[in-house]
Amino acid sequence: MKNFFTTIPNLLLSVVLCFVLSSCSSTGVKMSESSPWTTIQFEDQANALDVDFIDDKRGFLVGSNRLIMESTDGGETWEKRSLDISAEENFRLLDIDFKGEEGWLIGQPSLVMHTLDAGKNWTRLSLGNKLPGQPFLITTVDAGIAELATTAGAIYETSDSGESWNAKVVDASGSGGVRDLRRTNKGDYVSVSSLGNFFSTLENDSDAWIAHQRASSKRVQSIGFNPEGSLWMLSRGAEIRFNEDSNDLENWSKPIIPILNGYNYLDMGWDPNGDIWAGGGNGTLIVSKDQGKTWNKDPIASDLPTNYIKIVFLDKDALDNKKGFVLGERGYILKWNS
């Protein structure tokens, strides 16, 4: 009789768990037979945070601890470079973006730099002391024109190579602060609030953020746009969701939970073949070839002792072939073999 009563809590737990999982889509994940990725490991174990290319051969990678590296062979090899900034300033170089030979890079705390000669020389710009938040995202729009977004949800535009900046958002408080923020080529933005409790959108022709409820009680990790401009969302509990109607941002798919291993997904990206990649903690990198219905683990990525924090696929007019990188921690990155 005693054994019978001790099994009741376990039975109840099983029933509750089955009920919870019945509202989700857990696909199960097998290991892929091959991988399109090549591992690159840097001696400097700083975390790579962004990468961009000027043309098929020349590109830059930036990251923590003032990390800046240049490639002249399409990303096969990388060499360390330095910036003309004080040795006492330990910047976290967060984002870099080129259009032609003109480029911008930003860092925290409060660093903005500009180049006109493909990164041979960089000029540091003054932002003053009234900028709300820290630089978070920089976009090279056109010659001498760039947009800068901050952790406070403020967005500024310069049309004179950084001599002056004009606010594009009247009230940045609608963003709730920023833990993640993305921009489309058309100038639309989406952001996740600093606490992950809601997300906000900003259309190109608008000067105000519009807040939206998150898809569930789980806090949002990150959010972004797919190649068609629709939204995806990554939430705590390793949940993946897709917006099913771009005109209704409250309409989300059921949560897809490919792997329940205790690690969250941190970023997603669409490769040139249309396959979806999601990366996260403990070497987690998975791919779906059927729009998120089923997923496979990548065999090369799974063997590396790192967390994958950013997935970048570059498709620019200056590139003859699309490029792809998965940026990991502790000096690891993956390069797409196109």
Automatic annotation (TrEMBL):
Q: Which InterPro entries match?
A: PSII_CF48-like_dom, WD40/YVTN_repeat-like_dom_sf, Ycf48/Hcf136
- What GO terms describe the biological role, i.e. biological process, of this protein? photosynthesis
- Gene Ontology cellular-component annotations: photosystem II; plasma membrane-derived thylakoid membrane; thylakoid lumen
Q: Which keywords describe this protein according to UniProt?
A: Lipoprotein, Membrane, Palmitate, Photosynthesis, Photosystem II, Signal, Thylakoid
Per the record, membrane topology reads: Lipid-anchor
| Regions that span the bilayer | none
Q: Which residues form the signal peptide?
A: 1-28
Record localization: Cellular thylakoid membrane
Q: Which residues form the Photosynthesis system II assembly factor Ycf48/Hcf136-like domain?
A: 31-336
The source's domain of life comes to: Bacteria
Entry keyword Signal: yes
Among Gene3D superfamilies, the record links this protein to: YVTN repeat-like/Quinoprotein amine dehydrogenase (2.130.10.10)
Free-text domain note: A 7-bladed beta-propeller torus, about 55 by 55 Angstroms, with a depth of about 25 Angstroms and a central pore.
Q: What binding partners and quaternary form does the record give? A: Part of early PSII assembly complexes which includes D1 (psbA) and PsbI; not found in mature PSII. Binds to the lumenal side of PSII complexes. Interacts with YidC.
* Protein family per UniProt: Belongs to the Ycf48 family.
Its biological purpose: A factor required for optimal assembly of photosystem II (PSII), acting in the early stages of PSII assembly. Also plays a role in replacement of photodamaged D1 (psbA). Assists YidC in synthesis of chlorophyll-binding proteins.
Which protein is depicted?
Photosystem II assembly lipoprotein Ycf48
Name the source organism.
Prochlorococcus marinus str. SB
